Amino acid sequence: RVADNVVAAVVSPGSNHASLSKNFEHGDTEERLYAWWEENGCFQPDMTATGEPFTIAMPPPNVTGALHMGHAMFVTLQDIMARNARMRGRPTLWLPGSDHAGIATQLVVERALEAEGLSRVGIGRDAFTARTWEWKREYGGGIAGE
User: Fold this and answer.
1) Dihedral angle at the C-alpha atoms of 58, 63, 65, 69, nearest 10 degrees?
2) pTM of whole model > 0.85?
3) 96-99 long-range Cβ contacts below 8 angstroms, 24+ apart
4) C-alpha dist (Å) from residue 60 to 14, 29, 90
5) In degrees rounded to 5, what are phi and psi of residue 97?
6) pLDDT tens digits, residue range 76-116?
7) pLDDT category, 3, cuts 50, 70, 90?
8) C-alpha triplet 89, 90, 95: angle, nearest 5°
């Protein structure tokens, strides 16, 4: 466990609130803190934990569009459960998934084609495959980044 005085030295917001900016500028803080957390093993499991193991899988979002508040809600709840289990001394694994929803993605691409007056069969297998990969590149990368 990291000592409180070490954490305070890393965060060090200033002794005077007047020195704080009006708005939170995450770029000034998050990258530095995240690097510090990784360097100090904050994301590593406690190998001495003796409680019953706790595992939760993060279901993957579909590549059918951007993430929304519903995704944020379930990820927040899973984060709370994983942190709670870890704080109670349980070996904890929170495992993120990746997209697996080929059928849902196909449906969204087919609907986009229909809006253009086209169909999956009409454009052929190769063109449809290319459109599906194009959709995945557009939305899949954004989801991974979010």
Assistant:
1) 0
2) no
3) 96/58, 96/60, 97/57, 97/58, 97/59, 97/60, 98/60, 98/144, 99/60, 99/61, 99/62, 99/63, 99/136, 99/140, 99/143
4) 40, 28, 24
5) -100, 175
6) 899 899 989 988 888 888 887 765 667 778 888 999 999 99
7) low
8) 130
